[in-house]
Write a structure and sequence with these properties.
heterodimer, A: alpha/beta, Rossmann fold, 5-stranded mixed sheet, 5 strands, 38% helix, B: alpha/beta, 6-stranded mixed sheet, 6 strands, transferase (chain B), PTS_IIA_fruc (chain B)
């Protein structure tokens, strides 16, 4: 599955980046393709492009602050708190599979 | 710049006697103050506790990453501490903690993007299980550098 994700935490210092790494490793282990955009203290990094979004099966927003969903009109969007990724990254990816029926 | 450039020996103590959360935060914040990262110790500690109230900083695997974005911080830094005994700490895996990374970030960090990037990079590495394994076994400054390299 092609998953796009955004991570963003309150301070934008640490959790944002830990969650990115965790999601990437979990997706890899479960055989998914993932790209993670971080919205943190250093601004937006690894930005999701219109092409990325066009090709994606699902968008996962893992954030404790408001993240704009304007870019994702017409795409399935799953929103979860960042703590779920911190606790169980593989659980999050599996849950997305369940939801998407893939 | 590499991650090791932000690991400053002066603010690393891998043989801490602290036995509770407050002692850990105070000890590491004290090192940051002494080394010139933090301007006002009590003000900084207050901001660290504010962040603690917002959510869990124990990331599992006996590691915690308390952090303060604070007007009392002069420059971006990370204090690293290991306690000789496990300390009670709110954690995602509900386990106690013995390895601490206390982040100091100025509230106005526009001029510090390079260092913030290093902090982000270091944090990212804490999400990697292989690196976390190495950190668990690290007992010297060199071990720490090695885990992050």
């Amino acid at each position: 599955m092609k998953i796009l994700a955004i991570t963003a935490c309150t301070a934008g210092i640490a959790h944002t980046y830990i969650a990115k790494e965790k999601l990437e490793n979990a997706a890899k282990e479960l055989g998914d393709h993932i790209k993670v955009e971080t919205q943190g203290s250093i601004g937006v990094e690894n930005e999701l492009t219109p092409e990325d979004i066009r090709e994606a099966d699902v968008i996962l927003i893992s954030a404790d602050i408001r993240v704009s969903k304007d870019r994702f009109t017409g795409k399935p969007v799953v929103e979860i708190p960042i703590s779920m990724v911190m606790k169980s990254p593989k659980g999050v990816i599996s849950k997305i599979h369940e939801k998407m029926g893939k | 710049m590499a991650v090791k450039e932000i690991l400053d020996k002066r603010v690393i103590d891998l043989k801490m006697k602290a036995v509770n959360k407050d002692e850990v935060i105070r000890h590491l914040a004290g090192l940051l103050k002494k080394a010139g990262y933090v301007e006002d110790l009590e003000g900084y500690i207050k901001d660290v506790y504010l962040r603690e109230e917002e959510g869990i900083t124990g990331i599992g695997g006996h590691v915690a990453i308390p952090h303060g974005k604070s007007e009392f911080v002069d420059k971006v830094g990370i204090a690293v501490g290991r306690t000789e005994q496990m300390v009670e700490w709110e954690s995602y895996d509900e386990e106690p903690v013995d390895l601490f990374f206390l982040f100091a970030v100025p509230s106005d960090s526009e001029g510090a993007k390079g260092h913030l990037r290093l902090i982000a990079e270091l944090a990212g590495k804490l999400g990697n299980e292989a690196i976390m394994g190495k950190l668990q076994a690290a007992s010297t400054y060199e071990d720490l550098l090695d885990a992050f390299s």
